[in-house]
Every structure is written in structure tokens, then in C-alpha cells.
Amino acid sequence: MGRRKDIDGSAGVPTFYGKELRWQRERAELTLQQLVEGSFYGVSHLSEIERGERRMPAELAEHVDRMLKTDGFFKRRCEDVQRA
User: In the record, what terms sit under GO molecular function (predicted)?
Assistant: First the structure.
């Protein structure tokens, strides 16, 4: 496994969103694999979102909110990130 890189959340909206996603996932003690289970997305897709390299689709945001119990945070911010 490669060395984990810190995410600079000040680099823009997608990286800020990705950094929050990683923080929430790690707080819940879930791996990328565990978080995507039950969705139609893969680990690499979620990893790219965490690094701010890809935008999160609304249906994945809903799945993430359910898994992380974030009360709709990622779904609500999904449109903002898409526009950024």
C-alpha cells in the first residue's frame, strides 16, 4: 500500500469536500472498500473524490450520508461541488 498523502482542503471546493469525506470516513473507522459496499462505485472512484480529483455523484453522496450517518451533509453539498 502506498503512503497516505495529506489533502490540502484550502486548494478549492472539491478538495475541501474530499478532505471532509476522508475525515468522516476515518472517524467512522471505515476503509474505502467498506464505505463503497452496497453502492455501484469502486474504491478508486471514492479515493479520487477524497483527493478532490473527481466530483461525487448525487446517488453516491446519498449512500455516503447513510453509511457515515452525516444527516445529508454530502448530498446537500454535492451541487456546490459540482458547480465549483
Answer: DNA binding
Identify the band that residue 83 occupies on the pLDDT scale cut at 50, 70 and 90.
confident
Query: Structural domain of residue 78, as residue ranges?
Result: 12-83
Asked if residues 32 and 46 have their Cβ atoms less than 8 Å apart, the reply is: yes
Q: What is the residue type of 84?
A: A
- Reported as a single tens digit per residue, the pLDDT across 17-32 is 899 999 999 999 999 9
* CATH number of 50's domain: 1.10.260.40
Residue 2 CB coordination number (10 Å):
4
